[in-house]
Amino acid sequence: MKDSIAKAAVLIKALPYIQSFKDKIVVIKYGGSAMAGDGSPDTILQDVVFMATVGMRPVIVHGGGKEISRRMAEVGMTPKFVHGLRATDERAMEIVEDTLFGEVNRGIVRAVEKFGGSVLGVSGKNAGILHVRKHMALVEDEDSGAVKKVDIGFVGKVERVEVKPILTLCEAGIIPVIAPIGLGPEGRSYNVNADTAAGEIAIALRSEKLVFLTDVHGIMRDPDDPGSLLSTLHVDSVDAMISEGAIHGGMIPKVGACLNAVKADVHKTHIIDGRIPHALLLEIFTDEGVGTQIVR
């Protein structure tokens, strides 16, 4: 009986959060790093199904960089990155599309279905969800110091997000799972950075929250000290933390997407440790949370 009463108390404690987030859209960036956690992939997707069941409208945008690199290595290709973006020639684009939509997306969909969720996997090309233009990388010449544009292939910069197909799914109680492949010039497929895609989709949907699942505790003032985790980070502090090196590497595009989203009136953005079981529920339905929220 005591266990049953304790479970009931937990549900009642979560009730105000459930009420406040009913019918609100939450965009979740779900990537390979979060998938690699100890037991977390299942619990994360259980969390997503729970969110949808209690009336929230979760939208999953996923990455798959590790899987793409593995597939490229299998055919003797060496991945090349420019400022964190994967240089993508025509052959690489075929692998990117086949891996993201044919492998990773379907795997997530099957897992959500296993937990009883109503779900549909889509590519950003479907119904023109992600319209993109060719992205040219800016690289500083080592000799002259001049900045020049470098063609890195089929890499897309989001120009427009078509929200109607996403909203149609959400309103029908279906969880969209979106692969970050954009529709570019002449109908060609373009590889889109998943962090950026998630941010642009959150802005276009005017979502309540944008959540990045990572394989670190969150944003720490000292990256080597988990005890320096910041539960809240204000946008005015971000530039200084990047200059100090506290925010670096793969965290920069995530924080950049959070900044853009907050400035575009997404209410709150979060970077949380996806390795923790039920990380999403802990962040959304408790006062303590498990990561860093970035706010105005």
Main attributes of the structure:
single chain, 41% helix, alpha/beta, globular, 296 residues, Carbamate kinase, 10 helices, 14 strands
Number of β-strand runs:
14
C-alpha end-to-end distance: 45 Å
Helix content: 40-55%
Strand order, main sheet: write it out: 5-8-2-1-11-13-14-12
Give the H and E element order.
HEHHEHEEHEEEHEEEHEEHHEHE
How many helices in DSSP terms? 10
Taking Cα atoms only, what radius of gyration do you get, to the nearest Å? 19 Å
Pairing-aware structural class of the strands and helices? alpha/beta
User: pLDDT under 50 segments (min length 5)?
Assistant: none
What's the architecture in CATH terms? 3-Layer(aba) Sandwich
The CATH homologous superfamily corresponds to Acetylglutamate kinase-like
C-alpha geometry: globular
Strand content: 25-35%
Give the domain tally. Answer: 1
| Major beta sheet summary | 8 strands, mixed
- Average pLDDT figure: 89
Description:
The chain has one domain: Acetylglutamate kinase-like (Carbamate kinase, 3-Layer(aba) Sandwich). A hairpin with a 6-residue loop joins β6 and β7. Helix content is 41%, strand content 26%. The protein has helices at 2-21, 32-35, 40-53, 65-74, 90-114, 164-171, 194-205, 238-244, 251-263, 279-285, and strands at 25-30, 57-62, 81-82, 85-86, 119-123, 130-140, 147-161, 175-179, 181-183, 189-191, 209-214, 232-234, 268-273, 291-295. The strands form four sheets. Strands 5-8-2-1-11-13-14-12 form an eight-stranded mixed sheet, with helices on both faces. The protein has a two-stranded antiparallel sheet with strand order 3-4. The protein is α/β, with parallel strands linked by helices.
